[in-house]
Design brief:
This protein is an alpha/beta fold.
């Protein structure tokens, strides 16, 4: 056992609360005493927000081990549990909660002790950052300062330690080459190694995927392959083999796009096979995300120099420690631990990224060290760029330079959803006020370094008279948009200006017509038969937008003219500001144009290509946004036009791309049907024996809205499985109700329970905790239905509380009508069931049960599960007995004969 840090420690779970004194003596206490002791003396704790939630005292503070770990080991991840932190500190995990409480002191001692180790490679910058943390009142600062040796010379600042990127020549277009299927298969063999298990499906897919990289014959007609590759065939290496080969031979770049951050991390890990040398790998394989994911160095500098106060100032310094050691500056899903920002107010982390499009590009003093610019430049010369669907679509829609010609969309079943989000337009109060702030800048008592468009272009305006007039007109137009406290004025019946009056009219009509599906949550209604208030206020808002759009166009042209005929005073920084403003003005003009089209439709003829509706967004009864929304009825139409047609080769793959449907459904959901020629198809079944290793149990004796019975069913199933359960819900309200009823009961049995929307931890970290502990269980909603990869014993039971029918929204109703009515609903549900079931078997040897707690499950949906898998309708008691026997190895799972599996009627037992 490591030496204990002689300070008191506090450990709280759903099973109880324990205090350890400075000597390591542990005792169980009640909530009142725990809160009193923590208020009197700082205690060592692990994850203050989580402990505060368990104590019912959210304001608890103390010596948080996670903060200490983030200081000692920036850019390293550790599972944020006592067991996870113990392993990270080189200690044995605890056997019970008493030992866990004492172990908090040992972990603290071990982490503090590492700062005296000569092998501690994260030493540089620690002394300087700790001085700033001392001034900010960080609880660990004194203890850290006692163990840090003062450097002999002044430490370099973060901004001088970060590497600069070099300017290179324009990237040349890729050469025209052809990859033979046999060559792709040979590359696959090299990647797998001599001892790898031969997988026919993987080899066949590599050969078919090679054809995607052939030269295209006609403009607007990419070589396109739709590949339905079952779990376990190894589709990742199957497409990386020909992709990497083409990139080398053609000297080009292949973009591999995912939908989830988990798959991005997995693909990044596969880079070890492709390029074993670390330095070479960082050049040839690059992860790219949207700008809002990366740390903005200018925002960080502002935060470190007084822009942040209180706890947010501590966050800024810890992020600065991380920035010096990060691989790429990615704050969302990168090497910044997801749990770090959850320890502080989320707004603090958000303010450290460029979420408002305020970047001044080369005008920024940190431009040559900018993480975003590093990633963009590395991506231009990389062999493989690992991106996400949204970034690929946004870059293509905005005509960004370096748009890729070879694309692989993994998790391709999400293309429809990604396109639906990317190509939608929302004229809401929150969107409008963001535009106002971008143009005008801070108003009233607002603080921060944000500067409006007028301030950023002040010197330009003084030089160009016509541009100055246009800029003034843009500012006047922005003043017509809603301003601070707009929601309060609308609620009080006192809206200001044309936009607040429009949003007030929207609110009135929605409340008049909407049917509340869940009390306290969002409301919406069709934009049909609008009343006079809506029509008149929309016309006034449209007029205000038109008055703003005209000078925006003039301003863009004047800025371009200044660049073409550059005056003497236009130095590099001023030029950079102008270029950045032109770029930002461009896509904001597109937004304004979309809003004008929406407002022009109010009271007029509807456009059959779009679905328009009015909505009020609420959380637990509190309104936070109001407005009008427009989505494409079929978002794969702009996807095909903007993304697919310009490409030369496109591979779309997923384990559930086709499912039990025909290929025409996959073509419709991926945009392939809008191309001039049909795509190629590939299908390989999973090598896993689902029938022998899994069963589907449909519990038929639970009432639909009986929360106590639902909670009892979850508790008994989790107890029977001994944890290892993923519980999926269709409503947050029911998730919270079930969690509140069973968390303490399970904890007393030694079965930790975590939950989305309950525990103050990001979803990725919750999955990491779940994966790390075979006795833990996790409750969640849609985000956990897909993209969760938890192989082995940590996941042996998936429980869904009801059939995941689509919410009856205005948008869904329109698509349902166009897509075949109930058949459209069935396709959506089958896809969701298939994806949820797919969490069970991720590797050879995985086994488990899929339990659906809904008697009203139509038989027609059961084709969502693989052929041969036993489907049993039975009471809860029998389901529990079956799970118990199967997981204990007494009765096994599966057990259907081949003859019965081939008969659809035999799937019902």
């Amino acid at each position: 056992m490591a030496e204990l840090l002689p300070l008191p420690a506090l450990h709280a779970t759903h099973a109880g609360i324990w205090l350890a004194d400075a000597a390591g003596e542990v005792r169980s206490v009640g909530r009142g005493e725990a809160v009193a002791r923590a208020a009197e003396t700082p205690h060592i704790i692990l994850n203050a927000p989580l402990v505060g939630g368990r104590l019912g005292y959210p304001e608890i503070s103390g010596l948080d081990l996670l903060e200490l770990f983030a200081f000692v080991h920036p850019a390293r991840f550790a599972v944020p549990t006592v067991s996870g932190m113990a392993r990270a500190a080189g200690l044995e995990p605890p056997q019970d909660d008493l030992e866990a409480t004492r172990l908090l002191q040992a972990i603290a001692g071990r982490l503090l002790g590492r700062m005296g180790d000569s092998a501690w490679f994260e030493r540089e910058g620690a002394w300087t950052v700790n001085l700033a943390l001392t001034r900010a009142g960080w609880p660990w600062a004194r203890l850290v300062g006692e163990r840090l040796r003062a450097p002999g010379t002044m430490e370099r600042s973060l901004f001088t330690r970060l590497p600069e990127w070099d300017e290179n020549a324009e990237v040349t277009p890729p050469r025209t080459v052809k990859i033979a299927p046999e060559a792709a298969q040979a590359r696959l063999s090299d990647l797998l190694g001599e001892d790898a298990e031969a997988r026919d499906g993987q080899r066949a897919m590599a050969g078919e995927a090679a054809k995607v990289f052939d030269p295209r014959m006609r403009e607007g007609e990419p070589n396109m392959l739709l590949a339905n590759a079952g779990t376990g065939i190894g589709k990742t290496l199957a497409y990386l083999a020909p992709a990497s080969l083409w990139a080398e031979k053609a000297d080009g770049t292949v973009w591999v796009s995912t939908y989830t951050k988990a798959l991005q991390r997995q693909l990044d890990a596969e880079g070890d096979r492709l390029v074993p040398d670390k330095d070479e790998r960082e050049k040839r394989i690059v992860i790219r995300k949207g700008r809002e994911n990366y740390l903005c160095l200018l925002n960080l500098e502002d935060a470190m120099q007084g822009g942040f106060a209180g706890r947010a100032a501590i966050l800024a310094q810890l992020v600065a420690r991380w920035a010096a050691y990060t691989k790429d500056g990615d704050m969302v899903g990168g090497d910044l631990p997801g749990w770090l920002t959850s320890l502080f107010r989320r707004a603090g982390a958000t303010a450290l990224t460029d979420r408002r499009g305020e970047c001044v590009y080369a005008g920024c003093p940190h431009y040559r060290r900018c993480f975003i610019e590093h990633a963009e430049r590395k991506g231009r010369e990389a062999d493989l760029v690992i991106a996400n669907h949204a970034l690929v679509m946004v870059n293509a829609a905005r005509g960004r330079p370096g748009t890729p010609t070879r694309l692989v969309f993994d998790e391709g079943h999400h293309l429809f959803d990604a396109a639906d989000s990317t190509f939608a337009a929302h004229l809401t109060g929150r969107e409008a006020i963001e535009l106002r702030r971008w143009v005008i800048g801070p108003e009233g008592k607002s603080r921060g370094r944000r500067r409006g468009l007028q301030a950023r272009l002040m010197d330009v305006a003084s030089y160009d008279e016509e541009g100055a007039r246009a800029l003034d007109e843009v500012v006047k137009g922005a003043q017509q948009l809603n301003s601070d406290n707009w929601l309060g004025r609308i609620a009080e019946g006192d809206p200001w200006g044309p936009f607040e009056k429009f949003f007030a009219a929207v609110r009135g009509l929605v409340y008049a017509r909407a049917k509340a599906q869940d009390a306290g949550y969002g409301l919406e209604t069709e934009l049909a038969e609008p009343d006079a208030d809506i029509i008149e206020s929309a016309a006034a808002a449209l007029e205000a937008l038109e008055a703003m759009a005209r000078p925006m166009a003039v301003l863009s042209k004047r800025l371009e003219a200044i660049l073409e005929d550059a005056p003497d005073w236009l130095d590099s920084q001023a030029r950079a500001r102008v270029e950045g403003s032109i770029m930002a003005l461009g896509w904001r003009r597109e937004t304004v144009a979309a809003w004008m089209a929406m407002l022009g439709r109010v009271g007029g003829t509807s456009d059959p290509d779009f679905v328009d509706w009015l909505a009020i967004d609420r959380v637990e009864g509190r309104e936070y946004d109001i407005g009008m929304r427009r989505h494409w009825l079929d978002p794969t139409r702009p996807l095909a036009r903007v993304v697919l047609e310009p490409a030369h080769g496109v591979l779309v793959t997923s384990a559930t791309l086709k499912g039990a449907e025909e290929w025409d459904v996959a073509e419709a959901r991926t945009g392939a049907k809008h191309l001039p020629h049909d795509p190629a198809h590939f299908e390989a079944e999973s090598p896993f024996d689902y029938a022998a290793n899994t069963e589907v149990l449909i519990v038929n004796d639970l009432g639909r809205d009986n929360i106590p019975a639902l909670a009892g069913a979850y508790a008994r199933l989790i107890e029977t499985a001994g944890g290892g359960t993923l519980g999926l819900f269709t409503a947050i309200k029911r998730l919270r109700a079930v969690h509140a009823r069973i968390a303490d009961r399970l904890a007393r049995a030694g079965l930790p329970l975590y939950a989305q929307h309950v525990d103050p931890i990001d979803t990725g970290t919750l999955v990491d905790i779940f994966r790390d502990d075979p006795r833990a269980s996790l409750l969640g909603t849609d985000a956990l239905r897909d993209g969760v990869d938890v192989p082995g014993e940590s996941l042996r039971l998936v429980v869904m509380e009801r059939v995941p029918w689509p919410r009856p929204t205005v948008l869904h109703a329109a698509r349902r009508l166009a897509g075949g009515g109930s058949a459209y609903d069935d396709r959506v549900v089958r896809a969701k069931l298939s994806q949820a079931y797919g969490r069970l078997v991720r590797r050879a040897g995985d086994r488990g049960y899929f339990v659906l707690l809904s008697a009203a499950t139509p038989s027609r949906l059961l084709t969502a599960f693989p052929p041969g898998v036993g489907v049993h309708r039975l009471p809860l008691d029998e389901a529990i007995a079956r799970v118990k026997a199967g997981l204990a190895g007494e009765g096994g799972v599966g057990g259907m004969s081949d003859a019965r599996a081939a008969d659809p009627a035999a799937r019902q037992v």
